[in-house]
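Internal ticket - ligand job 568, adenosine monophosphate:
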Amino acid sequence: MRVPAVVARPAGMQRFAEACAAIARTAATGAKVGLLADYLRELDDADLEAAARFFTGKPFAASDQRTLSLGSATIVAAAKEVWAFSDQALRTAWREHGDLGAALAELVRPPLDLGLFAEPLTPASLRVLFEEIADAGGKAAGKRRLVACERILAACGSQLEATYVVKVMTGDLRIGLREGLVVSAIAAAAGADEDEVRRAVMASGDVGSVAVAARHGGLRDVRIAYGAPIGFMLASPIEYGGAYRELAEGDWLIEDKFDGIRLQAHKDGDAVRLFSRTLNDVSHSYPEVVAAVARLEGRFVLDGELVAQRDGAVLPFRALQARLQRKDVTDELLAGVPVAFMAFDLVACGEAFLLDEPLRERRRLLEDLLSDADAGVLLARQATLDAADVSAQVQARFEDARARGHEGLLLKRADAPYRPGRRGKWWLKVKAALTTIDVVVVAVEWGHGKRAKVLSDYTFAVRGADGELLPIGKAFTGLTDAEIARLTPWFLAHETGRLGHAIAVEPEIVLEVAFDVVQPSSLHASGYSLRFPRIVRVRDDKPVAEIDTLENVEAIYRKMLERENGNS
Ligand code: AMP
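stdout (structure tokens):
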């Protein structure tokens, strides 16, 4: 069904901000979607394309590798130029709001130089300015970015508009809209099928162009954006040695859980690109993998894990870390830490986007594709789980995988679709018994004794139901001196305020933290605390959006209770 675009009036960023504020105030997801759909219907195509992207919290399409490269410092410098406020006023506002957009909004006043702008900002004109910022290169790039940023801020006509413009710039919209809800609203606004919109967004990596295509009935023409990253499908943890009730239904396939780095490999003609789990292009770091993928025939998107290995034997994650920490890829490094790409899934092949094909079929195509691959691209081993005596098989396979240097097992349903960005029950991961959670550092403190000059004590948080960060504990053991020394300047550069002795920092550093017991506690805002927390590693590979949730913590707590009660 096609719904004609209703273009009643120019919809500036003021209207965008009003829509954001209304959506933020509304708790029910259905109502949020309704408000967004109403707003999207108002826009002409150019504004629709830009605004739909902004609602995902990012200035550019996911398939667009450009970033604004605008640090808080540049935004603050531009804001000072436009609104002339004191450092003290900003510090106070920032402390109060803990959010740059809201803090700066308090300081908005009529721009000093009215000649700086003429037209009000629209989503489409803001997009053009964003592109100017992202494309600024050469010696004067910093200055040009600053000037463009000043033009943007000077064109903001109200506090509300400035708040949301800055929030889009910093990629931190916080109005409780997941991309899934933006997809629902695009479908509702265009009268299009929601699943079709979702598939088109995943294939093209751009909600903006999909919103326009949906409006004009052109979803089927949306092409796979080879060379643009697609979200990774994720696995849910299950307990080793448990009852394996999750495996009662369906046919299951078993793979090793490789202890490496997740990578997506795109090949389109001669162009090969590798993307990390955070959807960054990391091709330059692994030239030998790029070369090995380039030698394969066809156009495709492979999913797999980069592993360090020598003569067919997997090397521990530590070996790979040596390569992760180095920017320049020297011959010595290439020879010292040989890597291979262990492929386990095929997401797209030619013009076919394989998300809805069952895993078994994707695997068949993958085997065909890799039939003449060389040692740089390997096919992950896969076996079928026999429905009889599941526990014994899982145990035997688990021990075998561990003996070969892998982390554990992945159990995958043979009929599983590929669900980008989802952690569902189609893929289950079985790890060793140690309980760990992934958390984000929200505050840091100076250490003691030989660590007095480094920030070594970290307060970390999990994510609450509404996306808020809830502190759950503090850890100061586990990292090496070198890692702490590396993190200290980062924390100092990303301070957002003071919390007593602690320095509040931008929540970006993700840690994997192991602990003995989780228990209810009034000490932290999460309502839980961890006993003997120690940092297992810094998870540079994991985006903050994917840290553990309070719900996971509650589930771990319930499991611990059940086990204790069962044992008593
Ligand atoms: P975790 O990082 O603990 O959330 O575990 C999920 C990760 O396991 C994925 O992101 C992959 O990087 C990794 N992994 C290792 N082996 C496999 C496999 N055979 N299939 C899928 N993911 C795997």
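Auto-summary: Residues 12-57+176-221 form one domain. Confidence is low (pLDDT under 50) at residues 1-10.
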